[in-house]
Amino acid sequence: MNNLKKTCKLLVFSITLFLSFSIQAQNYVGTNVKVNLFSSTPIEDIKAQSNKTNAVIISKTGEVAFQIPIKSFEFEKKLMQEHFNENYMESDKYPTASFKGAVEPNISWTKDGDYPVLAKGSLTVHGITKPRTISGNIKVQNGTISISTSFDVACVDHNIEIPMLVFTKIAKVINVKINGTLNLKN
């Protein structure tokens, strides 16, 4: 009987410990975060959008990760999309772009509010990883996280070659905007 009490106490303690860690280690996940690309030159503006970006934020540590399938970007003109994937991004060879880092400061994920943050980490595009610090905004509302940021990516930093024939139509620096909602996932 004494062993049964000890086993029950151990079981209750284990469940309580597990639940306390689960509550503290909350993850926020988004599977349809929107990413917009914009290239502007005097000759032509080029826009593309993807709604298939995956994002994860681990609230305890402030760690953040994004992964974008390159072929998910859609352009107004199908020929632009084809050139983007085949000639510039080489999507079959480099199928994703990603960011891994941490949000600073690590905010109060359970307190509603708007928080200006910096995401410090590594941006990988076209197989080339570069350290980046990206400013953005996180809005916490009723347990849901909304994220937004806008930053520039220089093609040369990621060995993305723009042929001389079209250099007047494609900017050397591409603007990237990310907006989305992440929900609590235990």
UniProtKB/TrEMBL annotation:
Domain spans labelled Lipid/polyisoprenoid-binding YceI-like: 60-180
Keyword Cytoplasm: no
Superkingdom of source: Bacteria
Keyword Phosphoprotein recorded: no
Pfam families, sorted: YceI
Signal peptide (UniProt feature, chain positions): 1-25
InterPro entries noted in UniProt: Lipid/polyisoprenoid-bd_YceI, TTHA0802/YceI-like_sf
Keywords: Signal
Name of the protein this chain belongs to: Lipid/polyisoprenoid-binding YceI-like domain-containing protein
Species name: Pedobacter mendelii
